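Exercise 7.
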Amino acid sequence: MNNSISSRNFSGLKPVEMARRQKLQYMMLVFTYFAVLQEIVNASNVPHPSFTCGPNGIKHDTNDSETLGGTPNVDMTCPKLPIKMDAHTEIACEVLSKTFANITWFHNRQPISKQRKSHVTVDRKSCYQTLKIKFVTTSDGGNYTCQVANANGNVNKTCVLDVKAHTTEEVQIGYVKIAGNRQKAILQGSVVLKCSMLHAQAGVWLRNSERITDNERQVYRHERMFGAKVMMLYLEIVNVTKNDEGLYTCLGYRNGRQANKTFYLETEPCPSGYICPHEGNTAIRIPAAVLPGSNGVFVAQSKSKGSCSVFQGYLLIFVYIPMALHGCLGSC
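Solution. The predicted structure, written as tokens, is:
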């Protein structure tokens, strides 16, 4: 191969000159070889990290017989800002040690095991150990310590993790009143008390400072509005009696905080000249031409006998239809 190169590169030259050119070429090759070898030797003498990170700690790679003393060098990187609830964060611990070293993590002086939500990952190239905490809660706050120990001693580095808890919004009660436009509950009817609450997780009703539970005559119901920030709490009282009068309190609470507002419930009989169905807290006015007949059946006065009068339309609209809806229709 060299002959071909020489013949190609030095064609036409005298034999003496060609020999001199070949000798120069070989000298350049030898020089290049020794120069590369020297660079390799120099690079091997440059200090560089020679540690490997494993599951059992850090161990020196070399087989030097010299005494390798000194405590480990530990550098810890901590979060600087308060961490919000449910966020992810991590704490890093970088270690340099000339002998075998063990790394142990502590949270508020308690050893951290590889739990479901907190775990340690190791970067085998840079001797980094990183504690990752997912979905941070207030219980994750406190002091985190990276303890590194070798044959010459141990070093502790600690940082504080500040967790910013969700601000607890105050529970507010908007109003407590009777549903509808009446101010009192009609006896023998049914009434619904309604309460508007803001930022409440749950609510209860009290009567004269005692808690009301669901029963046949007093029924709870609630619904959420406007992105669940507003909750409407209802209390339906069926077959109202005089004993249902009293002070009713709507109590809302959230994370140990609560608010309340009261309402005094009064009752009244069905007003004269009205029909009061048992369902609901309503009173229907009776037309002036309609008079109560026997057995609670309402009839109309008319000049024509044996048939319904011109007041049948009034009777149909104001009496018969409402009575039919409530199961108490009479006959004309």
